[in-house]
Amino acid sequence: MKVIEIHNVNKIYNESEVKVHAVNGVTLDFEEGEFAAIVGPSGSGKTTLLNLIGGLDNPTSGDVMIGGSLMSSLKGSDLTDFRMHNIGFVFQAYNLIPVLTARENTEFVMRLQGKTAKECSNRVEELLKAVGLEERMEARPSKLSGGQQQRVAVARALASKPKFVLADEPTANLDSKSTETLLDIMEKLNKEENITFIFSTHDARVVKKARRVITIEDGKVISDEYKNIED
Amino acid sequence: MITSISWKNVWRNKSRSLIVIIAVTLGTIAGVFVAGLMNGWVNQRIKAAIYTEVGHIKVQNPDFLVNEEAAYSISNFLEVTKYLDNSTHVKAWSARSKIMGMASTARGNAGLTLKGIHPEKDKLVSDIYANLLPNTGSYFESKSKQPPVFISHKTAEQLKIKNFRIRDVTVDSLKTLDVPENVILKLDTLINTRFITQKKFEVAIKEVWNSTEIKSYGPALLSTAAYFHPRAKITFSFTKINGELGYQTYQVCGVYKTSNTMFDQNSAFVKHSDLAPAAMLADNQIHEISILLNSEENIAGFKTTLQTKFPEASVMDWKELAPDAGMMADFMTMYYYIIMGIIFFALAFGIINTMLMAILERIKEIGMLMAIGMNRIKVFIMIMLETVFLTLTGSLIGMILGGLLIKITGETGLNFSSVAEGFEAFGWSSVVYPTIETSFFLGVILMVIVIAILSSIVPARKALKMKPIDALKME
Prior knowledge:
The complex is a heterodimer. Chain A is of the alpha/beta class. Helix content of chain A is 35%, strand content 28%.
């Protein structure tokens, strides 16, 4: 089942006098349960493409459809609510809420959806256990390492059971060991929960784990390969 | 969840938040205390106006209001008093005859109004008897050859029956006030000498004390050496009801002092039974009936009923009779809120500045919150709650401390005796007992919440103007 459909999407930045074609005629589909990496050099347009898929930015032309809904038809609070219910985000800089504990950060989106702390409890504990942080549930981000914080961010992205997770350079600030751990966790959750993961990265370790690698250069998709990786 | 984040956000930068909280606390303490002080003053003034000066309602002959002549007595006095006796609303009433006159002694004179009362009945309406100065006599209790008169300290000064004498009790008082022994010893030559004016007493003191001693201990000596000449005789001259000039000599039975100099200067009390024959008034020729009701809530209704029942009489309530106190009763609550409003308005700029700093520091985080699903309304609520918590914390502490300050000073009283003359000239007591109603605090809490919400608009707009994607790019 197609989760994301991108049809001939363009994004042109008109800053100063020079037009920048950040995304140039991209057409892509993502099926449920994919574990895909969008790779390319800095400035190739991978983060812009991720932002367009996540509804954080609007395409200059073309359509982005998520689960059959046209993103450009959603505005304001409807768009925010749509993101809350359908998309999980993992950012390069973790972006956890510093005043909340790992548990509270993880349940945050669920609470925004109107669930009570009690209703969130099982799911949050299950996820934090899955990312190996069952002992650090009550720790605030300042007491966690970078790798641990990113694992909390992954748990937060998955807590509300979104249709897919967008991870923008999730391993950029992590050491090798933390990267390995994080990727293993995301791969495991992808398989167990059948949630689509899409990464933007130029980290070879992520590319190695991905089952689909989309290469983008100057805003254009230059290759889209599926790999056969043995479980 | 949003409430919890907002509260935790307040404590992200503890020192910055504490500075704002302390500023709000101090502002609230100041506002609450000033309101309590003014409220205490106003309540004391209203209490004095009602229970010492005019009562709840006063019935008079309307012509007497224009021209205070003895002939203008209440025309149907007996009917009115009969009605009052049968009314369930009336707690007590007192009938008074009033004659304008001139009081004279060998050394001074003063114009005033003689009020002829039935002392025991008047006690139920006016607490003037409770304002008797110590060691000056009694409220119509002592026996004398001449008819008794109850005069004010101000009248006593004008008539120069306030004397000065250094007695043993004066020396003892000075010792308790920590006046050095050697300074007290210098007064030995003046002990038991009577000075009939303050000026003469001061001249004598200057001969034994140097200027430093006078400056340090003079006021204490003046107040402890002053006494009122007991049983002084005062002659009153007045116009009788038939237009002829009348005289009557009275003997001072006691001296009183209220917080209203104007009232004191103008009022001397005698027995109606003494005044009526001297002024050729009949026993039921009364110029005013002062009425005290069981409940202040009935004043307006009872006044209307009484006026309807006796249209030929002038029926006025205390707000009309003491318009200064009446005006304050009507508007003071509004003034308290204006004071608090001005304080919070000034504090609002500091709160806006602090919140702006707090929001600009977290703009990236707010972008992230909007990206993962926090809509603009929830972001606004979060910032608004943060501002409310920041402001409310300071104001609640301020209200508790301000309330405690009012409670303490409300029991001990605040003495403004150094400027007593100025205050008392307007009827304000120089010793104030601050007080405040609980409802005032509820009003302040409401005001704080409104100010905090208004203060949150600028920082919230700043945050909401950003698109999540732009905010996320910020470092």
